[in-house]
Amino acid sequence: xxxxxxxxxxxxxxxxxxxxxxxxxxxxxxxxxxxxxxxxxxxxxxxxxxxxxxxxxxxxxxxxxxxxxxxxxxxxxxxxxxxxxxxxxxxxxxxxxxxxxxxxxxxxxxxxxxxxxxxxxxxxxxxxxxxxx
Amino acid sequence: xxxxxxxxxxxxxxxxxxxxxxxxxxxxxxxxxxxxxxxxxxxxxxxxxxxxxxxxxxxxxxxxxxxxxxxxxxxxxxxxxxxxxxxxxxxxxxxxxxxxxxxxxxxxxxxxxxxxxxxxxxxxxxxxxxxxx
DNA sequence: TGCCGTAGTTCAAGATATATGAACTATGGA
DNA sequence: TCCATAGTTCATATATCTTGAACTACGGCA
Lengths: 133, 133
Prior knowledge:
2 copies of one chain form a homodimer.
Chain A: H1 14-21, H2 24-35, E1 47-48, E2 51-52, H3 55-67, E3 71-76, E4 79-84, H4 86-92, H5 96-110, H6 123-132
Antiparallel strand pairs in A: 1-2, 3-4
The structure holds a DNA duplex.
Pfam families (chains A, B): HTH_20 (PF12840)
Protein name (chains A, B): ArsR/SmtB family transcription factor
């Protein structure tokens, strides 16, 4: 197992951050991690809404977050301690992470049903409807 | 040609916005469009940095931006007038777009070479290096 | 009206990325 | 040493992205 790669803060890109957080599962993981003031293991964040993510997928998601520079993962015995790199990112891109987390909260608050599992656009259903009419 | 689809502002998702702006070409298009206070045609935004985007790609990029709710496209004669939907999005997700645009400016300002064409993470090169050593 | 040019869209196919079960690695404890 | 736990890596099926080629829509001109 090669040692986990963490980019230097100077190599962190906006594209990487937006891409990492454009996935609802990763956004949910990151939001929960950011809400904590301590480290969390991967398995502690395995629930996304109403379903459990397979651990291989979870590992990939963490890899994306890590390589985007959003989280830091450190082995602690048999498990992994994940923490956000909020402070560093805040310094490089002021206001970016708070704005994204806030937008996610707005959306979660406004969502009528948490199980309307929407991926990226809410438009596919609407489009089909529009096409038909 | 089916009529262009624009989602209602209530159907606009954070995931969609982040995904749309996580591509450097689309981010560049959107940033330039947001900097304007008037509509722009697609061809007017065809240059991304030092290269010209094929028009089929450009069309797809505009579709993504449109379906994410970021831009509005209206046919005006033979061409297309594109405008941002900043005001609507600002109302739904306050501060999100300004924070992203600001972060992109920070990154552009800090980039040593504009032709170090970085896609999403700046890490692939660094990772190869790390692997080798 | 028919024909041509311009501006974009759609299609198709190859390249790239994502999701996940199965196999593997690393650590700690008995 | 053997086992259990927590993650990672691999392989493969699926989905998404990129882009040249073909197509559509509109306007102008005869």
